[in-house]
Amino acid sequence: MGSATLERRLDIDPERIGRPRLDPHERLLCRFYEPLFLLNALGQTRGNHTTTSFELDRGRAQVRRFLQNLCFICDFKKGGSACTAIGLEELDTCYNFCIASNRETGKIAAFLKTSLGILKSGAHLTAADDDREESRFLHLCLEFAADRIEGERKCLCKSIKDCLSTLHEQSSGCDSKLIEWLEVAMNLDDHVQLCIFAYETRHSDRVAELSERGMNEEKRLGPASKRSSFLLLIDDMKDLSHLLESHTVYAIDALSAAPPPTRDSHVNLRGILNRMFKKSDQERSKVKNGLLYLDKVGGVFEKFLLPYERCSPEVHAEVQVLDHFHKMRKSFAGDDCFVACSKPACFCCEMYFKYHPARATLSYSHHKIWTNWSPPNLNTFDGDNPTYTQQRDILNLMTNELREQVITQVLQRLPSNRWHPDSMTNITSIRCPDVTSLGLEVPNAGNTKTPAIIDLTSCPKSYNRPPETAFPLPLNEDASFNDTSDAENGGVSLFDYCPSTCT
Ligand SMILES: [Zn+2]
Q1: Residue 324 CA to ligand 1 centre (angstroms)
Q2: Which Pfam family, giving just one, matches this sequence (predicted)?
Q3: What pLDDT sits at residue 55?
Q4: How far is the CA of 345 from the centre of ligand 1 (A)?
């Protein structure tokens, strides 16, 4: 059925429905996506950002942080296409960095090889060489992330322009210094200078003033002495050089996604309730009435049907790494079944890991639904095939959890959770309730250096010099939100984020 012919209206109680869904795999997928789309229509954000407890032994925590920061520097584009996941395999003779990304694995694997080479060569340098090595590594990372930084720069400029126009409107003469400062920021085209500026001013009075005036909330300043992902990698290398003594990088072949679900004649309210409840279940009519009410006041059914027309499923990077390890029976280094990822896991990835027999751990989740999420595609749907039965079992458990959440939300008439962005950068700090720090703290590890405090107005000339002579750029490790503004992956710009407009 072509999408042009689809109605935007959900049938409530149709007189006729078509043939049953005979294909078991198609049925499985339809039954999974149905409550996923419905829950998304009730509210995409299912909770606050979470983070894994890192109350681990120092060595294991440090390896996790190292992998997490590697993912961060590999994610070179805004949006989700370059989202990167790494699993560290331990072989008899070497460590193998198994890497996958949503859509850019080849380019990212090549960058990771180069980065690990630089980190390895810097692991045994003397203190005198440190600055040069840090600078070289930093410039490599900034060059690789040029697309992403440029995207952030454009968002920043747009927001500054909006801000300036408001300030000019309200101008009482006392904002001239703030206006001047914003104009300096807007004219920073050079990526290195821009990053330095962002880092150095993230806790400044100016940012605090803007934050206070813009959000009308008290400022929340993090410790200024934290190190950036770039520099933490170098710090950690001092203790983890054994990982790179003998290592390889393995780019995991991209897994194809399951076909998008079809909106067939079974997608109607009666059918949805039939699949959710037994006939005698007393909650059935309450949920039916609740959904009809929510549709009347909020157009829930139209939102529910939309992904059937737009869904373009893809297998997220962390799922690719997990399935690769499990299928190939690979051993995680140090028996730590941990998959690092450059972005917090989405709601579905988190559930997939929860119900996967590998019992692997993800670092954190943004608890938001992405309707393009897909399990790996399967070629065989034989009930005796363990790969199929494994996926069937996982999807059934996920489907149950999705249905439970739909029922709970409808029965309790819960409001949608407040929206929040998906990702964290390590640059600015923005208020958000109940968000815990995502800095992967490692007790007593590294972090002994005090970062240089750099004022752009007295910036050493070396900042503009080639990497060989440039001074290292300290960025911080604070938790902060970043946009993932790719339409297909959702999210809006950090600088477009205004809590007062969120519902
Ligand atoms: Zn995901």
Answers
A1: 16
A2: OTT_1508_deam
A3: 58
A4: 5
